[in-house]
Amino acid sequence: MVAIPTHLLHSAGTLDNDEVRRIRNDFPILHQQVNGRDLVYLDSGATSQNPLSVIEAEQEFYEQRNSAVHRGAHYLAVEATESFEDARETVAAFIGARSDELVWTSNATEGLNLLSYSFLNASLPGAPAESARFALGEGDEIVVTEMEHHANLIPWQQLAMRTGATLRYIPVDDSGALVMEEAARILGPRTRVLAFTHASNVLGTINPVTELVALAREHGALVVLDACQSAPHMPVDVKALDVDFAVFSGHKMLAPTGVGAVYGKAGHLNAMPPFLTGGSMITTVTMEKAAFLPAPQRFEAGTQRISQAIALASAANYLKETGIARIHEWETVLGQRLVSGLSALPGIRVLGPAAGQERIGLAAFDVDGVHAHDVGQYLDDRGIAVRVGHHCAQPLHRRLGLTATTRASTYLYNTTDDVDALLEAVSGVRSYFRV
Amino acid sequence: MSLDALYQQIILDHSKLRHGEGLASDEPPAGASCGESHQLNPTCGDEITVRLAVVDGRISQFRWDGDGCSISMASASVLTELAEGTDTEELRQLIEVFREMLRSRGKIAADPEVLGDAAAFEGVARYVARVKCAMLSWVAAEDALAQATTA
After folding, report:
1. Predicted pLDDT of residue A6
2. Is the Cβ of B12 closer than 8 Å to some Cβ of chain A?
């Protein structure tokens, strides 16, 4: 059941402010005042807002079809199971995957933990032979990058610590790009896993996936892609990118919290030991042992987040109908407007690629002499919502000589007026704080 | 609630002219009983190290180094002024009064007679997310005081 976004009844072609204003009509939360001003929501990098069609998809499930899935023979159970599996197909197709290659998780963090814990289980004595390719031990290396979100760093730190493997990282240069010469030096025959973000949640950098995958392939390493900041904002085809695994979160792509997904090549998923075990993921159980279902059920123990998965499918449809390439194009316009506008202000240092260089539609910045929390408070007073702090990337901030920054991040419902409102407000921050 | 009620002039002034900043600038007085505490606010990365010296039951010196927002830095500066020369028991009570006021969500008015310049942080109580910023140096002081008086 695909609800056509209302704005599409009126237009086609390139996204522009007029169409974005119609898109905004689909998002009830955006139409409110904060501190006496119209809300300017520039924190979609943290969590995005839901269109009415997504909210209604979840509500409709509870009103019409709520039931446990994959069990029970009654009408509602069948309806719920069909909707749940249809949702999987929709979301898998959204990233170019097959439905048996998409595992539901609570969020991307859980997805990365699912992978790292499964690899840990493969490394333990007695692990099944087919999981040997995921087993790590002393002498093996896991490679990440210096720009990772903590979610794509700490699970790998823990895995290295528990298996005796070594964690290494590809450094970031001053412009916020990965140092690819270093990547070529760091990746080698010892590399077993390469985990990196597609697009940085702080720098806005889009990483060269093709080159990194090629390096990993050269050494037979598994590739894990953090697609949290890419899948919601730009076309992502996991098959074309040829990654082994990818993770993303629903709440960053117009869906509710509590749902995310792991993509994995079917050959991998079916050879990996489970992470969480229990009901719904088994075939035969005795008092001594159990045999497991193939993926994706293999990784979906217990009652699943059914309504959230259905809402995520509705969100994927909304993005697809609007056109993910058009959204990317529009957010590139907004991102460039942010960077060039912020860079032109005295005392503002924008992190990541300079104006004119490729970046996603966000910008994190430092205001000389004013702490990010004070910047955020000042902006909130003007109805502008931004993220402040280290954005779950402490090592990256340390690398750039900072502890906290302010981040403005856009989505398909932001107009250039939103960016201009931010720029206008930021221009007054330093004088307010007597800098 | 206006922004100016949060960022009162006293706070903006103290965030710039920071009293007591610089652990290395002064040695603790000879014979003093010292305590030192490092506190970190993991949500924003603000951190502070407070060292206080107690001589004859009074705070003879209060020094700190920190990195953080204007609220947390101004709060440490104001606390320095209040703490130095104060009796240890008085400081303990002052910290309790300040904490109670900040956690009241605006229900408890700050008494300038008791809190002095720290009464300026009354507006912070209405911004739940900023209470920890204002409390950071006070929590460090409480810990340092406990060390100095039990040693």
Report:
1. 58
2. yes
A376 vs B contacts (CB less than 8 Å): none
Q: Which domain holds residue B90?
A: 3-150
Interface of A with B in 332-391 (CB under 8 A): 370-374, 377-378, 381, 388-390
B81-101 pLDDT, tens digit per residue, is 999 999 999 999 999 999 999
- Locate A107 and state its tokens: 């969020």
Lateral strand order in the sheet of A245-249? A102-105, A260-264, A245-249, A222-226, A191-197, A141-145, A166-170
CATH number, domain of B15, equals 3.90.1010.10
What would the mean pLDDT of B89-115 be, rounded to a whole number? 94
What distances in angstroms separate CA B103 from CA A386, B5, B145, one per listed residue?
Answer: 25, 17, 21
Looking at domain A59-320, its CATH class is alpha beta
> Would the CB atoms of B45 and A403 count as touching at under 8 Å?
yes
Residues A39 and A24: beta-carbon distance below 8 Å:
no
Kindly state whether B14 is in contact with chain A, defined as any CB-CB distance less than 8 angstroms: no
- C-alpha A191: how far from chain center: 24
* Residue bearing tokens 């598994």: A222
CB A160 within 8 A of CB A166: yes
Which residue intervals of chain B are DSSP H helices?
3-6, 9-16, 70-83, 88-102, 112-115, 128-150
Q: Report the complex ipTM.
A: 0.91
Q: How many CB atoms lie under 10 A from the CB of residue A220?
A: 10
Render pLDDT for B53-79 as a digit per residue (tens, 0 to 9): 999 999 999 999 999 999 999 999 999
CB contact under 8 A, A381 and B45: no
Geometric angle at alpha carbon B11, from B42 and B67, rounded to 5°: 30
What residue of B is the nearest CA neighbor of A434? B12
DSSP A337-376: HHHHHHHTSTTEEE-SSPTTS---SEEEEEETTB-HHHHH
Domains contained in chain B, number: 1
The predicted-structure confidence for A272-282, as pLDDT tens digits, reads as follows: 999 999 999 99
Any idea which of A52-61, A72-81, A199-208, A210-219 has the lowest mean pLDDT? Answer: A72-81
pLDDT at position A43 over 80 = yes
Handedness of CA A411, A413, A417, A422 (dihedral sign): negative
From chain B, pick out residues whose CB is under 8 angstroms from the CB of A371. 68-70
Tell me yes or no: is domain A6-50+323-432 CATH 3.90.1150.10.
yes
